[in-house]
Amino acid sequence: MITVVGVGPGNPKLLTSYALKKIKEAKVLVGGQRLLEQFDTRAKKIPYDRNFDLKSIDKLGDGVVILASGDPLLYGIANTLLKNFGKEKIEIIPGISCVQYMASKLKVSLNDAKIVSFHGRKGKLEEILNYKKIFIFTDKVNTPQKIAKDLRKASCTDYVIFVGENLSYENEKICRFTLKELAEYEYEFGINLVLLLGE
Ligand SMILES: C[S@@+](CC[C@H](N)C(=O)[O-])C[C@H]1O[C@@H](n2cnc3c(N)ncnc32)[C@H](O)[C@@H]1O
């Protein structure tokens, strides 16, 4: 059995007690460096980086726990594992998504929210144009500034945009911008989540 544990947006206080139990029991922990560093356990730690072959994971034996940021099924590694290994071999422990976290901070309902990911893929504006409340996962290429610029180019200017940076960490910042302000903002954000709100 391969266990995938959602560790929440990052701050250990947002980890569920069941997730922590699973992590403590693990013989091998696989995850991104940011997540592996958080846990002081005896488990062997294997960084999930470019050299790691996900398909080889079932050869690591029993007691393998894969750490996933936020919730493993929301644009997370659990989706890939399910495709590769099937439902019977995978156990999924949910976590608090950074989307839930930011919505709670801003006191914004999730009932009518659209969630898309531009992380590691070409962001398609047409995915979002029919919605008034859109959370967007970003990355180093699809930055908040790029999203703001692309929206302006497409003449979609009826949005305010929030950027949640380093959510749940001590250096967390959630800032509100107009698209023009953000498009012209010269700053390199840390890990971040974008929320577009239609006016
Ligand atoms: C591949 S997605 C995984 C999302 C995750 N499964 C979840 O439910 O939150 C990774 C993206 O989530 C966002 N993210 C994850 N943790 C974050 C944090 N602590 N602060 C801001 N954004 C975060 C970033 O946009 C990052 O590029």
From TrEMBL:
Pathway: Cofactor biosynthesis; adenosylcobalamin biosynthesis
Alphabetical keyword list: Cobalamin biosynthesis, Methyltransferase, S-adenosyl-L-methionine, Transferase
Pfam families, A to Z: TP_methylase
UniProt GO MF annotations: protein methyltransferase activity
Domain (Tetrapyrrole methylase) ranges: 1-183
GO BP annotations, alphabetical order: cobalamin biosynthetic process; methylation
Protein name: Precorrin-6y C5,15-methyltransferase (Decarboxylating), CbiE subunit
